[in-house]
Amino acid sequence: MTDQAAAGAAASPVRDGLTLGLAVGTSGLAFGAAAVSSGLSVAQTCALSLLAYTGASQFALAGAVAAGGGLAAGTASAILLGSRNTLYGLRLASLLRVRGPGRLLAAHGVTDESTAVALAQPDGASARAGFRATFASLYLTWNLSTALGALGAGRVGSPQSLGLEVVGPAAFLALIWPRLRAGAAERGVGLLGAAIALAATPLWPPGVPVILAAAAALAGALATRPASRPAAPEAGPQSGPP
Amino acid sequence: MTGTWIAVLVTAAGCYGLKLAGLTVPQRLLAHPVSRRFAEFVPVALLAALTAVQTVASGRSLHADPPQLAGMGAAVVALLARAPFLAVVVAAAATAAAVRALGLG
Lengths: 242, 105
Fold this sequence. Notes:
Number of strands of chain A: 0
Strand order of the largest sheet of chain B: 1-2
Order of helices and strands of chain B: HHEEHH
Helix content of chain B: over 70%
Strand content of chain B: under 5%
Shape of chain A: globular
Distance between the termini of chain B: 39 Å
Distance between the termini of chain A: 17 Å
Number of helices of chain A: 13
Radius of gyration of chain B: 20 Å
Shape of chain B: flat
Number of domains of chain B: 3
Radius of gyration of chain A: 20 Å
Structural class of chain A: mainly alpha
Order of helices and strands of chain A: HHHHHHHHHHHHH
Largest sheet of chain A: none
Largest sheet of chain B: 2 strands, antiparallel
Oligomer: heterodimer
Number of helices of chain B: 4
């Protein structure tokens, strides 16, 4: 691919990633305000957004602090919630193809948003461009709005009055939409994942139901196994990647 | 206070380690058709779950918030009309904000 072609292909993922990061990042206001009111200091609140940089885990730890103690259990559950980023990494590794220091940096940027944007792209170059744009934009916005929320700016205006609370789910739906249209297997996995998470919501703390939805991916992988490779059941001489 | 700092830093280290682990898993472990399909399906399953949970869940309870449902309805309509990504997100946010401004939230 030429540089011009790469730049042309990258225009849309960069724009989509920047916008998504800006819009979703404002929910850092809510995290900053919630974390401080649950008893974390402003510095601790900002450190979480800078260093953990994964919303569900951050809210979980703040919740444990608010509940008064249980720090070890709170830390354990916050880390457990981070495991969905491990699952995303499995898929992202072959798309991003990063090594060495680049991989250490890219790892920090693995979130729902950067995964969704990268995955929606037609090729590796635009996947990488979309991932980087989303990471940069979301990281800056999330951390700035965390600091503002922690300092009390959350009381000034509510992101809800701008409809920003639906930006996340609407963006996720838009980004997986092409996959859902691509085949019955994808639709089945998506619907099963959503159903598992909703059924688990009353039973488990927030964050866990989404991780449990990975069972839908496992079910899909097992169910579609015979169709996953054309004809040749076992590896033949030409079964390598094209 | 020190205990809280330890919790903050251990959480951060754990979350980072989990992110790095996913990117570092040897690709040959994903060569098996089932694990390869699993890795491909995971984002669809988790992002669909996240979409559903963020739309109708609040903590451990499920409840329908009219502005959010209207916003997601607008997103679906925009997607069916093959609107570009930004238009989908803007339609959802504007609809949710409008319904909330009308006092239906």
